From TrEMBL:
Highest taxon listed in the record's lineage: Eukaryota
Keyword Hydrolase: yes
Gene source species: Trema orientale
Annotated TM spans: none
InterPro entries xrefs: Endo/exonu/phosph_ase_sf
This protein's UniProt keywords: Endonuclease, Exonuclease, Hydrolase, Nuclease
Name of this protein: Endonuclease/exonuclease/phosphatase
């Protein structure tokens, strides 16, 4: 499980949590038990599903023809306070990029339609192969360190574009 805590201002704190299932089939039953318990917690906390734009099936077992199985596993949830903070949000299911899960984009300003495009004025797109560069973690940390939240993550993305 990966959790990111965002604090733009004192009254604008929110979390992003991503749950990754164990790839070892021996442990997958435990993962499903955890997900069932997570579902109960979501209900108890009053979190609602946000919906999405794009293809509904977010996972693919990468098999061919009739052996291919696809499911909707990736979802975004929030409470009413969060949707009040980001009324124009958009959660978009993009393409499969070297993974059995689609890339998902959380756009807080609702500007992206099918993902963030290339450098010709349509925005910033993270390329997975950048992770192979040994300087990638340092560049990202520097971009975050030099970023001041002004209600928009756009200036952070602009800072990263200088490295692309």
């Amino acid at each position: 499980m990966l959790t990111v805590r965002e604090e733009a201002e004192v009254d604008r704190v929110w979390r992003f949590t991503r749950v990754y299932g164990n790839p070892n089939s021996y442990h997958q039953r435990h993962t499903w038990d955890l997900l069932r318990r997570l579902h109960e917690v979501l209900e108890d906390c009053g979190l609602d599903e946000l919906g999405f734009v794009g293809p509904c099936l977010t996972w693919n077992n990468s098999k061919e023809a009739t052996a291919n199985v696809q499911e909707r596993l990736d979802r975004a949830v929030a409470n009413g306070r969060w949707t009040d903070l980001f009324p124009n949000f958009r959660f978009t299911n993009l393409e499969f990029w070297g993974s059995d899960h689609r890339v998902v984009l959380l756009d807080l300003e609702g500007r992206a339609s099918d993902g963030w495009g290339d450098r010709q004025g349509r925005g910033f797109k993270f390329e997975p192969w950048w992770l192979k560069d040994s300087e990638c973690p340092e560049i990202i940390l520097e971009a975050w360190a030099n970023h001041t939240f002004d209600g928009s993550i756009n200036s952070f993305l602009t800072g990263l574009q200088g490295y692309a």
